[in-house]
Amino acid sequence: MEISKLLLLLLPIAIINYGIAIYCIVDILKEERIVKGGNKIVWILVVALINFFGWVIYLLIGREE
Q1: What is the domain partition of the chain in residue ranges?
Q2: Angle ∠(53,45,10) on CA atoms, nearest 5
Q3: Where do the DSSP E strands lie in 5-52?
Q4: What is the DSSP annotation of 1-18?
């Protein structure tokens, strides 16, 4: 498989990943949002720096309702 075809296949996955990561960062920054541990900066770093899994970790265990 050519590399250009592979990149075209992976592009939608990357766009979705970064879109959800941006949504999570905006959610963390909301004034009324409470996160586990109380440190929003740590959760922003988790979402931003752990590619493809940071936002999953935040959505599963980082939010307090």
Answers
A1: 3-64
A2: 40
A3: 34-35
A4: --HHHHHHHHHHHHHHHH
Separation between Cα atoms, residue 5 and residue 7, nearest integer Å: 5
Q: Do residues 55 and 19 lie in contact, with contact meaning Cβ atoms separated by under 8 Å?
A: no
Q: Which residues contact 58 (CB under 8 A, 6 or more apart)?
A: 24, 28, 35, 43, 46, 47
Is residue 19 within 8 A of residue 54, CB to CB? The reply is no
- The predicted structure's pLDDT at residue 43: 95
pTM comes to 0.83
- pLDDT tens per residue, range 7-54: 999 999 999 999 999 999 999 999 999 999 999 999 999 999 997 789
